[in-house]
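User: what does the whole thing look like in 3D?
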Amino acid sequence: MKPKIILLIVLFAIQLAIPGYMIFEQNQILTEGTAYKFKTRPIDPYDPFRGRYVTLAFDANQDVIPVVEGADIESEQWVYALLDIDDEGYAVLQGLTDVEPDSGQDYLYLETYYRSYDGGFQVKLPFNRYYASEESAPKIESAVWRRQRDEVEDVYAVIRVLNGKGTIEELMVNDMPIHEYIMQPQE
Amino acid sequence: MEPKQLTKKQKHWLQYESDEWVEQGIINSQQQSQILGRYSTSHIESFYSSWSSLLLISLGAILIGGGIVLLIAHNWESFGKGTRTVLSILPLLLAQALTWYSVRYKPQLTGLREASGILLFFAVAASIALISQTYHIYGDLERFLVTWLLLGIPTLYLVESAGVLMLVCALILWLCGLEREPYWLYYLSLVPYLYSLFKRQRLALFHWALWFIVIGTTISIIYSVAWNSPLDHWMIYITLALCGFYYSLGKWLFGFKEHGFWTNPLCTAGVLGILFISLLLTWEDFYRYSHLDTDGKWGFNDYLILSVFAISIVSIVGFLIHKFKSLQIHQWLLIGSVLLAGLGMAGFHLGLSELVYIVLVNVYVLVASVILMSQGIQQHRLMLLNGGLLWFSFLVLFRFFDSDIPFVLKGVVFIFIGSAFIGVNIWYNKKLKQQAEQQEAGA
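Assistant: Here's the predicted 3D structure for the full assembly of 630 residues, as structure tokens:
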């Protein structure tokens, strides 16, 4: 067999392996990962290849996360953010460390953003895109924001977390999946 | 032996001439048919029809590929995760099957190879896009484009499709304009392919790719240092040196024989850049802020661009030494504009006054543009004349509207230069007349 044909087979295998690995990894996180609820607000932008999505502006992005004692962390550094749950049942980032946590402790591997005056950091949660159809995406944004003016809505994303990686399972409004929520008649 | 290619007109001439040779007994009719058999017009005749059909096939494949991506981007959320996962792999498998068939069994069918290569290129994007969409995988457009590009470049080498080459070039160009990262380095991965195109004399494709490379690299370098970089005040000087490098490289690679506007992208882009930037330097705002921010945050990209600047200067010097005797005065003047960059950088740090620098640049552009025009007239080269005229006209236009120079001074300088032009013209005409009279007397 000619080298070119062998290389072509290798290329095909790589081209298939990349999406294949993406599918495998996402399914693994979704099935084996622990579910956390992250408070968020959706905004509707556009991607030329992957279509419409809602950007999830997480409350956790606004918070200053303290650094775990002994950790040496700089801005724009990839770190481990330890996960915990607050009294209301929502996920909180408890602290940042540069050492991979032991098993049993859930964490997210993410990049630090700004250093705060008190030594903590702001971070950006990476799973910030919820893809939806051309019809649904603007509806999600407008429905949630219209309702918010009048009453306090409970908007959160259920994120499955495994080995530092998180993936979106569902976007929820008042404990209802977003697609069911937008199907409801709006008053 | 394969027949040599002739145009129809050339073949017709040869046929006519050889008929006469036979009549005159120089050759016999058998020899005539042997000679005529050495030349063919088939390639030339079939070239345009095959070229246009290839173009149509490629455009068709691009549209179909783009259409698949758009269909996927619509987001068929009602299909559910399982169906969408299968659907995401399906276009990739089909495109791979078509490419396999084309490369393995029908390598001689260029149209099929083009179509399958382009479809495979798009199928990779469609597949990654649909999986990202189905599982809400994070990652911005930049990461998506880089993954696509890395899978696209090997496709180019294995399928050897002109369409894929153009798409890869365009994708790198997109990345160059999207982020302040040295994405132009990806063009280096195309060098072996472009070299093979050049060797095989597939020059149209080669020129197109070179245009992409020149534009992409320039955009990327300007964008990377234009602001918020320790090199931002040197951006204009670095770009000027880069244009000088393009020009020298263009002359070095393609020789001093004149090429058209489109067929030597390096020279064309180099000249345009030199003219434009030297004109910018005639304004005061750039020299005033020529300091290098040594205390700023230096990243890989900054060091890389500084290296590009150094390599450009060294290459220009090497070119000048190597081609010292072949260079004409207008080429010296164009490449010499890079000295304005050196003068700006060094002059600022050595305390050269702003007024002196600005005057020097203005005088340089004025003298150089006039020499370019006169060279154009003497050598009957319209492109050179127009280039000089354009350079000169913009300098005049800029100074006319320059609010920093007092009106009286501007007026005096304009009248002086205008008089000088008319004076030179009268003197030149007289000289021509004298020469003509002398020639008549001599005859």
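In plain terms: The radius of gyration of chain B is 29 Å. Residues 4-39 of chain B form one domain.
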